[in-house]
Amino acid sequence: MKIRIDQKQLAGAARSAHRRLPNNPLQPVLGGLLLETGGDSVTLSGFDYETSTRATLPADVLETGKVLVSGRLLADVTAAMPAGPIDVVADDRELTLTAPGTTFTLPTMSRRDYPELPTAPEASGTVDGDLLAPAVVHAAQASMPDKEAAGNLEGFRGVHVAADGDHLTVSASDRYRIVRHRLPWTPDGDSAGELLVPAAHLAATCKQLAGSPVRISFTGAASVAALAGDTLTVTSRTVATPFPDIASFFPDPAQAAGWMRCDGTELLEAVKRAALVNDKEEQAITLTFGHGQVTVAGGVEGSTGASRVEAETTDLDGFTAGYRPGFLGSLLAPISGAVQVWFTTPSKPVLIQPVDDNGAATDHYRAVCMPVRLK
């Protein structure tokens, strides 16, 4: 192999691919990155049997070839090289990178035991990567930890992505909270589909692909999910267990006993302040309503704290309910303006939605929070 390629592009691709490789792979070759020429480009690939990355970069290909090299070394070395074009020459024993005044030589790895990379399915549509990334990262925070998602709960460890018409929904739940983001989606045809991908893997992928349109593949019963940006394609194994049917767990606003509307940021800050005097992370804070305000209180014997937030309320005077501050705060975090919360009883979940400038609840984000039973 003999190519000339831009240092910044190669370093960025090597860094992104290396981050997805295991730190201590069971097989040394799984810590490697595969460089392969094709036409006027070079593809940089990594695979650990769970996630694969492929970055296709423009290059002057002088001699074709394929070589496997340590991902950590390639990422470190290319990042340290001077900006501008660099020459990459490789044979069966070593890979040499050269720039004016700088040369690195890295040993190659045997490709004999390197696994075959999965084939990325055809894309089903496109979504804005700058909208997808924060939605998936936020949803991943509400998924169930892997160590808890065993047996028939395995579906809760993933983030569910589903396309329907011109919208994409991103959902997750740990049974104590539910989040659902709704994003604009441009389908390739009339096909709908869904994917359930381990939360941490999908969040990392979407952060990598932010900044460009993202093409997503829905392939029915296939066990591989594929997301692609301008130059990077990432595949991940999907969760085998179906995502739970959470639609019925969203409370019906028409059945609520009352609701409150206030500034979402002010409510979030009040929740954070109340949690400061709690002894334990899971200890509840309380929301108490009356006289056009909500009082958010925390603490136990000795240390206590409370903040009052002005709120428009309906049929909530004297109502008190408790919630884990970390859960409630995480559900309020994406809301930058007004928020509306519907309550039924202190022991039933609440529905949380943003409110537009006209005072109407929007459908681009919905969340559910389970209460904590107060003593």
From TrEMBL:
Which stretches make up the DNA polymerase III beta sliding clamp C-terminal domain?
259-362
- rRNA-binding in keyword set: no
Query: DNA polymerase III beta sliding clamp central domain: which residues?
Result: 139-245
Which segments constitute the DNA polymerase III beta sliding clamp N-terminal domain? 1-118
User: From which domain of life does this come?
Assistant: Bacteria
Q: Spell out the subcellular localization from the entry.
A: Cytoplasm
Give one Pfam hit by family name. Answer: DNA_pol3_beta_2
Swiss-Prot/TrEMBL keywords: Cytoplasm, DNA replication, DNA-binding, DNA-directed DNA polymerase, Nucleotidyltransferase, Transferase
Asked if the keyword DNA-binding belongs to this entry, the reply reads: yes
Hey, which family's this protein in? Belongs to the beta sliding clamp family.
List the protein's name.
DNA polymerase III subunit beta
Q: Which gene encodes it?
A: dnaN_2
